[in-house]
UniProtKB/TrEMBL annotation:
Keyword terms: Signal
Signal peptide stretch: 1-24
InterPro entries according to UniProt: PRC-brl_dom, PRC_barrel-like_sf
Protein name, as recorded: PRC-barrel domain-containing protein
Domain of life: Bacteria
Annotated transmembrane regions: none
Domain PRC-barrel: 59-125
Keyword Calcium found: no
Length: 253
């Protein structure tokens, strides 16, 4: 069931096309200066106005080629070290009598289909072979510069990561030296072309409804590194009890 409106998805796509990749030094500075947001200061209202569910984006978006024909499906989203969405992974090829091929399209080349049913990418039968290349080590710069193929098991290189690497991780509370299991990551919220929140499904003892936690950035805080099975947040159980439920039906309001 789709939880994200077309208008919210359009906002996320439009914002990404306007954002240029940050220089390497700016990215490093942003990572080292990342602040841990106290849950008491965490406001989810902006998420409802401008956020889009990454899980819905991956599950629901069809991929249309340069000629307007349906050519495949969205498989994943690639995020840079500063949390900015830099590329979309898509599985394409069935229409062109070739085997299924995974390609990576820079996010600033992705457009929303007029009816909101999918995304339009600059791929065609004539140029898809150019993107189907073996990539032993795929770095951040490569994905920003152009489409790349064969991504199923590709090494994404330093600090670039897939949304699917974070969804499904265990969520834990860190309170001083104590670590407590809290639930698992069920979704990621994209806002203005970047990751801004992590949606957690708590364990039964903490309630049945989704909660939105801040996203601090890869290597920006003590919460998560790509490849780790845990997403940690600096908070005690008393702080978590005051965290409001996340309401999916309010996205895009």
């Amino acid at each position: 069931m789709t939880r994200t409106t077309t208008s919210a998805l359009a906002l996320a796509l439009a914002a990404a096309t306007l954002a240029a990749p940050a220089p390497a030094q700016e990215t490093a500075d942003a990572l080292s200066d990342a602040d841990v947001i106290a849950l008491a200061d965490w406001n989810t209202e902006d998420l409802y106005a401008n956020g889009v569910s990454a899980d819905d984006f991956i599950d629901d978006m069809e991929v249309y080629g340069a000629g307007g024909e349906e050519i495949g499906d969205v498989e994943d989203v690639i995020v840079g070290p500063d949390g900015t969405v830099i590329a979309i992974i898509a599985e394409v090829g069935g229409l062109w009598d070739i085997g299924d091929t995974h390609v990576s399209i820079p996010f600033d080349l992705v457009e929303l289909a007029p009816d909101g049913s999918g995304i339009i990418v600059p791929l065609s039968e004539e140029n898809v072979d150019d993107y189907d290349i073996a990539t032993p080590a795929l770095g951040l710069g490569t994905m920003q510069e152009g489409p790349v193929g064969d991504l199923d098991d590709a090494d994404l290189g330093p600090r670039a990561w897939r949304i699917s690497e974070l969804i499904g991780d265990y969520a834990r509370l860190r309170d001083d030296d104590a670590i407590r299991d809290y639930g698992y990551v069920s979704d990621v919220i994209l806002e203005n072309g970047a990751v801004t929140a992590v949606i957690v499904q708590p364990a039964f003892e903490y309630g049945e409804n989704y909660r939105a936690w801040p996203y601090y950035g890869y290597e920006g805080g003590a919460d998560w590194d790509a490849g780790s099975p845990y997403y940690d947040i600096e908070a005690g159980e008393d702080e978590i009890s005051d965290l409001a439920d996340f309401e999916y039906d309010r996205l895009g309001e």
